């Protein structure tokens, strides 16, 4: 048996980031992984400018009761003339500071009449001026390779005048479901058959993380069908995920088929519930992970155990999302030597807590859309109502 943390870490080390890169325009960057460090090339703001609607003056010209002639009006986008001693310039938020001016008086503290402005409050030297480079100085690191680009990062790239950036290619994930009992949704079903949920589920999980579900194949429980499907996925994809057929049943042919393809396959009994049989192989230089066939197990195993490997291969810098400690609103007796991942729902409030789904059976798929996350319970340790446990938020762990 292998501990959960060890299995997760070993999977995450099973492959490096893919080497494919592409250069994309700003409009296509959302959700992509930056492949280069970005340094600022511009000072931002690029010139001193006003943080207020008001008047620019030289601070030394201020005297209580003295009015200054307003010699220019500077709108955002105008290039101001230099300000001579004893003059004031009318300006607005974002207007450039005239050369020589060093202080902005906001309009609420002034009275303008007949082309003269009177300053009613003694200004502080340099007030309400945004200095050149105070946000970002040229040469400063801006974004690190491995960042998943979102609106905030794209705004920063745009502010530097950059119209494109180099990102990792989308990770191509190949998915293989197995089992003679399965039929595709949308087709008729015999009484002895069930619909295939894992194919669509794993494709959605991969795509939800920004990867591409490049192929979703199904193989019957026979060697020819399995080896043809694996061969196709290994040729076209960066990472292969197979589901089912990897226990010790008579029809569990995934292991022998992969071995016949030259793989050495490590079959792990991970100390976690749901989800015991998980396998890792390298075949033709590609990592391949076998997940348990039960959809609830596959969902949990993908989320908490396999997703760090996907993030690593995508080139992402952070591969382990945050885990919180939250009180669990139920008691649980733990005896079976495995850590348990309960389907729970996070209840916000003054004291946030986790509510557990009533039926934690590994066949209960209706619990999946109900749950906002998984609560990790230690093995062989009874849990009292209100005990703080590790909470894996699906919004983080499936992203
Ligand atoms: P296996 O590991 O192949 O023995 O599968 C374990 C259980 O999960 C069996 O009850 C299968 O019928 C079920 N199962 C396997 N694959 C799928 C799938 N793609 N969709 C729905 N149920 C599945
Ligand atoms: Mg099967």
Automatic annotation (TrEMBL):
<dbReference type="InterPro" id="IPR036688">
    <property type="entry name" value="MoeA_C_domain_IV_sf"/>
</dbReference>
<dbReference type="InterPro" id="IPR005110">
    <property type="entry name" value="MoeA_linker/N"/>
</dbReference>
<keyword id="KW-0501">Molybdenum cofactor biosynthesis</keyword>
<dbReference type="InterPro" id="IPR001453">
    <property type="entry name" value="MoaB/Mog_dom"/>
</dbReference>
<feature type="domain" description="MoaB/Mog">
    <location>
        <begin position="174"/>
        <end position="312"/>
    </location>
</feature>
<dbReference type="InterPro" id="IPR036425">
    <property type="entry name" value="MoaB/Mog-like_dom_sf"/>
</dbReference>
<keyword id="KW-0500">Molybdenum</keyword>
<dbReference type="GO" id="GO:0046872">
    <property type="term" value="F:metal ion binding"/>
</dbReference>
<dbReference type="InterPro" id="IPR038987">
    <property type="entry name" value="MoeA-like"/>
</dbReference>
<protein>
    <recommendedName>
        <fullName>Molybdopterin molybdenumtransferase</fullName>
        <ecNumber>2.10.1.1</ecNumber>
    </recommendedName>
</protein>
<dbReference type="Pfam" id="PF00994">
    <property type="entry name" value="MoCF_biosynth"/>
</dbReference>
<dbReference type="GO" id="GO:0006777">
    <property type="term" value="P:Mo-molybdopterin cofactor biosynthetic process"/>
</dbReference>
<comment type="function">
    <text>Catalyzes the insertion of molybdate into adenylated molybdopterin with the concomitant release of AMP.</text>
</comment>
<dbReference type="Pfam" id="PF03453">
    <property type="entry name" value="MoeA_N"/>
</dbReference>
<dbReference type="InterPro" id="IPR008284">
    <property type="entry name" value="MoCF_biosynth_CS"/>
</dbReference>
<dbReference type="Pfam" id="PF03454">
    <property type="entry name" value="MoeA_C"/>
</dbReference>
<dbReference type="GO" id="GO:0005829">
    <property type="term" value="C:cytosol"/>
</dbReference>
<comment type="pathway">
    <text>Cofactor biosynthesis; molybdopterin biosynthesis.</text>
</comment>
<comment type="similarity">
    <text>Belongs to the MoeA family.</text>
</comment>
<keyword id="KW-0808">Transferase</keyword>
<keyword id="KW-0460">Magnesium</keyword>
<dbReference type="GO" id="GO:0061599">
    <property type="term" value="F:molybdopterin molybdotransferase activity"/>
</dbReference>
<dbReference type="InterPro" id="IPR005111">
    <property type="entry name" value="MoeA_C_domain_IV"/>
</dbReference>
<keyword id="KW-0479">Metal-binding</keyword>
<dbReference type="InterPro" id="IPR036135">
    <property type="entry name" value="MoeA_linker/N_sf"/>
</dbReference>
């Amino acid at each position: 048996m292998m501990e959960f943390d060890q299995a997760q870490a070993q999977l995450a080390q099973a492959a490096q980031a893919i080497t494919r890169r592409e250069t994309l325009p700003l409009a296509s960057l959302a959700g992509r992984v930056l492949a280069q460090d970005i340094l600022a090339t511009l000072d931002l703001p690029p010139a001193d400018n006003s943080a207020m609607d008001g008047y620019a003056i030289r601070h030394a010209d201020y005297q209580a009761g003295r009015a200054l002639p307003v010699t220019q009006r500077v709108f955002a986008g105008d290039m101001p003339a230099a300000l001579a001693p004893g003059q004031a310039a009318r300006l607005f938020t974002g207007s450039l500071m005239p050369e020589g001016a060093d202080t902005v008086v906001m309009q609420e503290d002034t009275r303008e009449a007949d082309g003269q402005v009177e300053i009613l409050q003694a200004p502080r030297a340099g007030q309400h001026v945004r200095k050149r480079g105070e946000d970002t100085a040229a040469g400063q690191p801006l974004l690190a390779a491995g960042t998943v680009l979102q609106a905030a990062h794209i705004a920063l790239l745009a502010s530097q005048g950059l119209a494109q950036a180099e990102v990792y290619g989308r990770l191509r994930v190949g998915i293989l479901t197995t089992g003679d009992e399965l039929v595709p949704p949308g087709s008729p079903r015999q009484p002895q058959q069930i619909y295939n949920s894992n194919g669509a589920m794993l494709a959605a999980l991969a795509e939800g993380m920004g990867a591409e579900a490049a192929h979703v194949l199904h193989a019957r429980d026979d060697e020819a069908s399995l080896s043809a499907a694996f061969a196709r996925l290994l040729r076209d994809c960066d990472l292969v995920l197979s589901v089912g057929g990897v226990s010790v049943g008579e029809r569990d042919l995934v292991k022998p088929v992969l071995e016949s393809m030259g793989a050495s396959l490590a079959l792990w009994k991970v100390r976690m519930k749901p989800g015991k049989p998980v396998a890792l192989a390298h075949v033709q230089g590609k990592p391949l992970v076998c997940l348990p066939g039960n959809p609830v197990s596959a969902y949990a195993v993908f989320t908490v155990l396999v997703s760090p490997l996907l993030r690593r291969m995508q080139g992402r810098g952070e591969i382990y999302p945050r885990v919180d400690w939250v009180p669990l609103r139920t008691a649980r007796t733990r005896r079976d030597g495995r850590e348990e991942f309960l389907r729970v729902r996070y209840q916000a409030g003054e004291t946030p807590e986790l509510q557990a789904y009533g039926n934690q059976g590994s066949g209960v798929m209706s619990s999946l859309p109900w749950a906002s996350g998984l609560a990790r319970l230690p093995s062989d340790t009874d849990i009292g109502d209100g005990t703080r446990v590790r909470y894996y938020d699906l919004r983080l762990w499936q992203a």
